[in-house]
Specification:
Layout lengths: L4 E6 L4 H12 L9 E6 L5 H13 L5 E7 L2 H4 L5 E4 L11 H22 L5 E4 L4 H10 L9 E3 L2 H15 L6 E2 L3 E3 L7 E3 L4 E2 L2 E2 L6 H13 L1 H9 L5 H15 L7 E6 L11 E9 L2 E4 L9 H21 L4
Parallel strand pairs: 1-2, 1-4, 2-3, 4-5, 5-6
Antiparallel strand pairs: 7-10, 8-9, 10-11, 12-13, 13-14
The protein binds (2S)-2-hydroxybutanedioic acid.
(2S)-2-hydroxybutanedioic acid binds next to helix 8.
Family: Belongs to the LDH/MDH superfamily. MDH type 2 family.
Protein name: Malate dehydrogenase
Catalytic activity: (S)-malate + NAD(+) = oxaloacetate + NADH + H(+)
């Protein structure tokens, strides 16, 4: 067994946390040999619910759990954190403008960024899920300047998983049969670009397996609006698919992606023509808690159109950052 790590979950009384906490405690995210000190953060009115959640987790007798703490104070919850999973964000309400959402979330992520900077370990890794995830991640990292930008990531694994699953359904195969890179670029929003031109199905090029029209016209918009389609169908946002994607993302980042290419929104570094200063989803390979951005060979016949899509998503991220008063 390794030494325990402290894992903080914000929004810990919420729906996604409810799906994710047992899986973290079971070792699905950090590995079956990694003990965890669990720190649950939520707002003051949610503390009684957190008490009940702790009772249930205790009743599960998870061998990997060293202790469980709860708090409504980020500076208490995040103290000495090794990993912070930021689920909490101000939700979109009917009648709200996007700017209102960004300003409300700026306040939350600024406070949590300052707390991270002050009390967390300098090696802490941070995954932001609460929407608008890429810009919330930017706000957080801007307010935690003593923590390297490479330690922050926003979730686009949900979009990645959706893309793989939609392709498999259309190709009439299982997700295991989809090989080669399928990757999300840009913002977790309708401007995201999905790159699957080099994917294969049981050794055949994906373009030779699914209909041309589906691949070139329908597939990407389906991925882009999938979150909204789920809200329309269920009346609530995605929960267990989000939880599954979070577990996949943490596992691959912290334990390793075993050579597979996965999608992560990370600090832009000039790759793919995206200047520094935003959190932009790109293809990554991970090992031992570190990611490396993969340079894909983009299909030359699609390159110009693809690059224009990346710039559109980048411009959206810049306008979000301006609304959040980062630039
Ligand atoms: C999703 O993609 O399912 C979510 O980000 C949607 C949402 O607004 O929570």
């Amino acid at each position: 067994m390794k030494d325990p790590i402290k894992v903080v979950v914000t929004g810990a009384a919420g729906r996604i946390a409810n799906n994710i906490l047992p899986r973290i405690c079971h070792g699905d995210a950090f590995g079956s040999n990694q003990p965890v000190i669990l720190s649950l953060l939520d707002i003051t009115p949610a503390l009684p619910v957190l008490k009940g959640i702790v009772m249930e987790l205790e009743d599960c007798c998870f061998p990997l759990i060293t202790s469980i703490e709860t708090s409504d104070d980020p500076k208490v919850a995040l103290k000495d954190a090794d990993f912070a999973l930021m689920l909490a964000s101000y939700p979109f309400r009917p009648g709200m403008e996007r700017v209102d959402l960004l300003i409300k979330n700026k306040a939350i992520f600024k406070q949590q960024g300052i707390a991270l900077d002050t009390v967390a370990k300098k090696t802490v890794k941070v995954l932001v899920v609460g929407n608008p995830a890429n810009t919330n991640c930017l706000v957080l990292s801007e307010h935690a300047p003593s923590i390297p930008k490479e330690n922050f990531c926003a979730l686009t694994r949900l979009d990645h998983n959706r893309a793989v699953s939609l392709l498999a359904a259309r190709a009439g195969c299982t997700v295991r049969d989809i090989d080669g890179p399928v990757c999300i670029f840009g913002n977790h929003s309708s401007t995201m670009a999905v790159y699957a031109h080099s994917a294969t199905v049981k050794g055949k090029k994906i373009q030779d397996v699914v209909e041309k029209d589906f691949f070139s016209r329908e597939f990407e918009p389906l991925v882009q609006v999938r979150g909204g389609a789920i809200i329309k169908a269920k009346g609530t946002p995605s929960v267990f698919s989000a939880a599954a994607a979070i577990i996949d993302c943490i596992h691959d980042w912290m334990v390793g992606s075993e050579g597979r290419i996965v999608s992560m929104a990370v600090a832009s570094s000039g790759k793919y023509g995206i200047p520094e200063g935003v959190f932009f989803s790109v293809p990554c390979k991970c090992e031992d808690g570190k990611y490396e951005v993969v340079d894909l060979d983009i299909d030359p016949s699609y390159k110009e159109e693809f690059e224009a899509k990346l710039q559109k998503s980048y411009q959206e991220l810049i306008s979000e950052a301006k609304l959040a008063e980062i630039y």
